[in-house]
Structures are given as structure tokens and as C-alpha cells.
Amino acid sequence: MKLLTLNFVTCARKSCKTLPAAFPLHPRDAELEIVEMELNPKFLVNILPRVEWQALRTVCQELGLPTLPDIMPVQQDLLQPPSLPGRESESQEGEAEGEGGSEEEDALQKPSQTAQDLHRVLLETTIANGKLVCGACGHEYAVKEGIANFLLPSHMV
Amino acid sequence: MPDTEQGYGAEYEHQHVHSVYERIAPHFSSTRYKPWPVVEKFLRELPDGSIGLDVGCGNGKYLAVNKNIFIVASDRSPNLVAIAGQHQPHSALVADALDLPYRLSFYDFAISVAVVHHLSTEERRVQSLKAIFDSLREADASSNGGRALIYVWALEQKESRRGWDEGHEQDVMVPWVMKDHKKKPKDADHVAEVPGAQTTHYRYYHLYRKGELEHDVSEAGGIVLDSGYEKDNWWAIVTRSATGGINHIDPPA
Ligand SMILES: [Zn+2]
């Protein structure tokens, strides 16, 4: 399950869904896997405002991933090259160096390091195996081979 | 959960819908690749960046339609979800249509294609619609509410070889014939071995009569923005809010 998806789901029990503690679900014993995917800058720009940033930060922290900034990046952070060198120095790999910029349209759409980092966290980082635990009722949902299972045992329905 | 009305309910659906799909998943998937035009149009016309649901996604054929939106797809059958999960950038998970793990009042759209008709009582069909509508974003000052497209099999199928039409029994068992079935199923009570290495699986369907989908939608608190009939199916585009979306209604396709 992608971390982006985890940001859009909650406990499946009706009695939990209105409770703040049922979101986000908390990963436990999670085995992560990177599933590479083409970066689509427009898609990221469009999706980002819908992400519950604090929930994403919580989940990343619980998974032991690098800490995300306190405040959600804005559109400009995604489509322009980072203006402050070293800001994302941890994950800099030298790929972001310009290759001429022959087409201005393309240059505008060029993903920044921030965009690449977010793409990696939201869309490529997946929970391959483990559990997702509801903070309200404590129920554990299993994740196996990347697929989360939200079926409830009949006594919980 | 206790069964209601003539022994129908969750247990009945488990036996006559879920376990059947689980067995026929690979075969079913290889025959389900062509999207319905109404559904395809609905998905293509969504603004880029829309976030939505595909409830009862099956093999995920609608996940291939638009890559500029994000769909969280779900199905009761893990075998089908494993196939659906291959469509990037979307996501697929296993969930029951009556117990959806989705944030309330959040999603821009939802589709539910050929799913609600597998629920065996009216109460459960209305509940499943309500679960979908509850997940849709409510209308506010700046935007219309989220929209759901619901698609169900029609009782009125004059053109089809199945022979159903107005006046026919609406709760039916529909055969699914699989050739060269290798393993003999464990529970043979609803599976008939047919000579020539064929196995026939029966799936339960509630065939919707004209006007019934609109009725169920309204029972579930939805407002029909548009509805119609497309090749043996009834469909409706629905919003949950009294104020959202009504000022703009698409003409029928
Ligand atoms: Zn819960």
C-alpha cells in the first residue's frame, strides 16, 4: 500500500469512522518496499493539497523514515529547481542538474528535488507486509504482498 | 450478522457471490477488459488531480482510463485486487462494500460498476449506496459536492439472449461457465460439473427494474443528477448534497 493511499483511508468500522483517533491508521511491523514509478509533476502538484500533511508526517515518523518538514510544501516548491542549495542535501544525487533547458515549457515542469522526495515518499514507498492499526479500536488490518485487507470479522460488523 | 428476507444477507452473498468471484477471478479477468462508455466518459471528464473511489473494482479495468486522477479501488476478492493493483498511479485494497475504510466527506468522485446488484436485500443495497455517498465531499461555497456513478444490471434486457424482461423474477442466479477447470471445488453444493471439462458457477444478482435505482439512491440520501440505460444496465450519477451540482447537469450521453 502506498503512503499516499494510507493518507486517504481510515478504520472500516462504522463506530470508528467519525473518531479522530481512527485516522491515520498506524503501521506496525511494517516491511517497506520501493516500487518505482514515473514522476508526473502535474499529478503531484494536483494531489498535494489533498494530503493531510500532519498525518503523513506521523506515519513517516512511525515508519522510521526521514522527518518531513513541519509545513507542507507549496506548488512552487515542486516545479522549480530548489533555490536554496543544500536544503534537501540529504537526498541530493546530482540528477537535478539542468541539461540545457532547450524547451522552456519543459523547464517549467521540471520537478524539483522536493518533488522527487515527495514522489518517493507518497507514491513509491509502499508497505509490502505488516499491519495497520486503528488508534480508536485497536483493530489490526493485515497487509500482505502490498495489499491491505480491510475485511472485518463478522462479530465486528 | 443475521440473515433477513428469505435467508438472504451476508452469509448468502458470501456463498453465492464472493466465493464464486474468487474462483473465477483469472478467467473473469481475461474477459473483462472493455470499459462501459458511460463510465469511461465520467472518468475522463473529471478535473486533473481528482481523488476518488472504485467500489467493487474487479480486475481494475477502469483504472486504466485516466492517469491524471487518483483512484483508491477496492474489491471483496483478493485475487481480483492483486490484478487491479497493477494499474499505476492508482491503488487497490480488499474491502467489503458495506464496510468501506474510506475517510468521510473527502472524495471527489466514486464509481461502483456492477456491484450493488450482488447484494441480496434492499436494505443492504441502500446501505452500500449510503456508504459510497458518505465518502463524497460535501458541496461548499467554492465547489460542487463529489459525484458518484452507480451502474447496475437491468431487469429489462429485451435485446439480450438471457431472456429477462419486465415482469420476470428480479432475484436470479446467473451461470458462469469455465472451461478446463483443473481442480474440483471443495464445496460442490452450488457448482455443477458439466461433461467436457466445464464447470458452471452460479452468481446471485438482483436485477434492477426501471426506476428502482433512483429509488434506492434517494433512500440512501443521494440526489440523482442524471440517469439512463446503457446496454442491459441502469446507471445514475449522484451527489450527496442538496445544493451541490444541480446547477450543472450533463445531457444524457
Ligand atoms: Zn477502529
State the gist of this model.
With 157 residues, chain A is an alpha+beta fold. Chain A has 7 helices and 4 strands. The longest helix of chain A has 12 residues, at 113-124.
What name goes with the CATH superfamily of chain B? Vaccinia Virus protein VP39
**Oligomeric state:** heterodimer
Task: Please provide the count of β strands of chain B.
Answer: 10
For the report, how would you describe the main beta sheet of chain A? 4 strands, antiparallel
Reported CATH architecture of chain B: 3-Layer(aba) Sandwich
Shape of chain A: elongated
Annotation field: number of helices of chain B: 5
Strand content of chain A: 15-25%
What is Rg of chain A? 18 Å
Structural class of chain A: alpha+beta
Runs of chain B in which pLDDT lies below 50 for 5 or more consecutive residues are 243-253
Give the uncertain stretches of chain A in residue-range form: 86-105
The ligands bound in this entry are:
zinc ion
Please name the CATH topology of chain A.
N-terminal domain of TfIIb
| CATH architectural designation of chain A | Single Sheet
What are the secondary-structure elements of chain A, in order, as H or E?
HHEHHHHHEEE
Shape of chain B: globular
What does this structure look like?
The complex is a heterodimer of chains A (157) and B (253). Chain A has one domain: N-terminal domain of TfIIb. In chain A, 31% of the residues lie in helices and 16% in strands. Chain A is of the alpha+beta class. Chain A contains 7 helices and 4 strands, in the order ααβαααααβββ. In chain A, strands 1-2-3-4 form a 4-stranded antiparallel beta sheet. Chain A has helices at residues 3-6, 14-17, 41-47, 53-62, 75-79, 104-109, 113-124; strands at residues 26-34, 125-133, 140-144, 147-148. In chain B, the strands form 2 sheets. In chain B, strands 3-2-1-4-5-10-9 form a 7-stranded mixed beta sheet, sandwiched between helices. In chain B, strands 6-8-7 form a 3-stranded antiparallel beta sheet, covered by helices on one side. Chain B has a single domain (3-156, 207-239), classed as Rossmann fold (3-Layer(aba) Sandwich). Chain B is built from 5 helices and 10 strands; from the N terminus they run H-H-E-E-H-E-E-H-E-E-E-E-H-E-E. Chain B is globular and about 60 Å long. The chains are: A alpha+beta (157), B alpha/beta (253). The interface between A and B is medium-sized, with 35 and 32 residues. Residues 11, 13, 16, 22, 134, 136-137, 139 of chain A line the site of zinc ion.
